[in-house]
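W.,

You were right to be curious about this one. When I first looked at the sequence I had no strong expectations either way, so I just let the prediction run and decided to look at it fresh. Below is the sequence, 185 residues in total, followed by the output.
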Amino acid sequence: MELKSAPTYYETKRLQSDYITNPLKNSYNELIGITGTTESPDTGILTHKSILQLNAACKTLKRTRDELASYNHFDSPEIQEKIGRREREMRLAVSKIFDDLDHAQQRIDSGSKWYTRKNEQVEQLESSIEEKEREISEFRNTLDSKEKKSYVSNQVKIWELEKQIKQFISRIKSKDDERNFTNKE
């Protein structure tokens, strides 16, 4: 008769690992360690693998519950009203900005038209002034007597002096207004 040698420690561990990882070698209840019908001393003990599976299932359940709670919180009417209110306020602000831009564009367009009209008026006035000056010089040249020529030239000088006096008066007034304004501050 041959004597069988006892398996070594590593062979025992390999056999246990094969036993745990190969469910065909044992029943499912004995594999996961939840057995209440056997009479072995370690009944009711969970194996490491089943504990890990149970832990993973609990974490998945907790994450799913947290996601559901978050969804329910953000789906509540008061939160949706806040989100809708912010969106309405943003749309209102954007529409006000566009209205302001349209108004500013209209003001720019009307200002451009006014500027163009005033430039045309200035050009017309300049051409009429040149025409009047030409008429005055022609009138001066058509006069026969020296007295009439002298009278006309003196009258032209008077008009030029009046114009200069008005310009000086307006400059003095603007300087006085500026001085009064700075004194008030």
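Here's what jumped out at me. The mean pLDDT is 82. And, maybe more interesting for your project: The chain has two domains: 9-74, 96-172.

Coffee later to discuss?

I.
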